[in-house]
Amino acid sequence: MRNAGRVTTYRIAESARILGVSDDTVRRWIDNGRLPASEATDGGRTTIRGVDLANLASELADHPERDENRPASVSARNRLDGIVTKVTKDTVMAQVEMICGPHRMVSLMSSEAATDLGLEPGVRAIASVKSTNVVIERS
Known about the structure:
Multidrug-efflux Transporter Regulator, Chain: A, Domain 2, CATH 2.40.50.100, 2 domains, five-stranded antiparallel beta sheet, four-stranded antiparallel beta sheet, 9 strands
């Protein structure tokens, strides 16, 4: 993030992290005119004004159809796609750890639920975050 005078700007990689998409997706959006960008004077890097990035982020958040794989019966809106890195079970409970992009997520659930979902290291899953609870489901 750069603060050029009073205008905050972001580079493509920073914008991608903020929006939760790839750098290539941000470049595509710039090429298609969906996200305005400009060439910066410092090394010729492409930059995006913070206000333009915020507008696109709001647009994406307002259109839940962007995640067509989301089950209609799930009320949690904060869903993070990731990979299970560790599962610790006892006879009653399981602790499931995931990495979702730059985020480490930990969920406590019944051992039976973890077994039924087939959760083990290396399995792709989605962490659904609602309030203080993390719900994990297979993706």
